[in-house]
Amino acid sequence: MFKQYVNNEQFNLQINRFINDYYQEDNRADADLEIMIPKLNDTNSWYKTWLDFAKKREDSKDYDLASVYYQAAEFYLASTDPNKEKMYQKYRETFYKGFTDFDYESYKIPYEDSNLPAVKLLTPGATKTLLVFGGYDSYMEEMLKMMKFIKGIDYNMIVFDGPGQGTALKNGLTFIHNWEKPVSTIIDYFKLERVSLIGASWGGYLAMRAAAFEKRIDKVVAFNIFYSGLDALKMGMPEETYLSIMQLVDNNEVEKVNSLLGKMMSDNIDLNWKIEKGMENTGDSTPFDLIKSFEKHTMNGIGPFINQDVLLLAGQDDQYVPISRLAQIQQELTNAASIITKVFTKETGGEQHCQAGHRELAFNEMKKFL
């Protein structure tokens, strides 16, 4: 169940994302949260509180929980903050100490002049392959953890960080819209003939984009639907404000866009995070440049190229993707082999972005689909 912990909408989403799905019946986390929640007042107290409890859990060898806390501690840190890299490394270190759900193999897959990190989760006797990746801010370790929800299906699972994600970003690979490139690289590397895809969050768009142009993909899961990168910027912003910003962008008013968004970021934690994280991912140095990058991330025009079996998952109260995009995506998938749609509501649970708080509901649908 999605829980309302604090008054900040995004804080609530992230707490549920990091904790609720895995530890809602875990007395360790419940006890920690009771002390932590009253301290989460701003991004500074967020960092200090999660870090404090991460250290405690690591000291007590609760590595699974420590990893979650380190990831949360890292979340709002600026890319220029030296603690961000430290938190990321502690997150990964404790994650692998505590990860026992699967036997696995680790890879560094050559890509351009760098490499893509990947982990292959082994399912005895599996005859098929599933590629899994996140989106804007998730790391492959977060996706690895979720695979327990579909353990036992007839798939080996290859989970990877693509350009602009996790260790691939650390390796110098910035975020791109044409996701068929890394997907094709993975398929070639493992010499695969057919694969299915799961893309989470922004990965819902990335998976659809890959399926449009890589025909060795047979099934594609948009775990959550994601039509346009600009939707994430627009959600939570007054319509007229968004329209005025985009008019300035269209008129190439660079300084006005940067000034306006800079002022808005100064007193809006959510917007500040979206733009700062976006510039970290893409390598862009200004909000204007970031918007131009976001404009490339769109399903507009690619729907007819998708001819695979498609599963569309959507949350009624998603704070990053308007539910109205679902009907649009369905209409634009004119050549899909099949389309299965599942909308999650408050009544069913899973109404939030990527079904935070009820992740197992989404994975139940994926198991049936795959």
Automatic annotation (TrEMBL):
Write down the Gene3D superfamilies for this protein, in alphabetical order: alpha/beta hydrolase (3.40.50.1820)
Specify the AB hydrolase-1 domain's residue ranges.
Answer: 154-336
Name a GO molecular-function annotation: hydrolase activity
**Keywords for the protein's UniProt record, in alphabetical order:** Hydrolase
Q: Which InterPro entries does this chain map to?
A: AB_hydrolase_1, AB_hydrolase_fold
Report what the protein is called.
Answer: Alpha/beta hydrolase
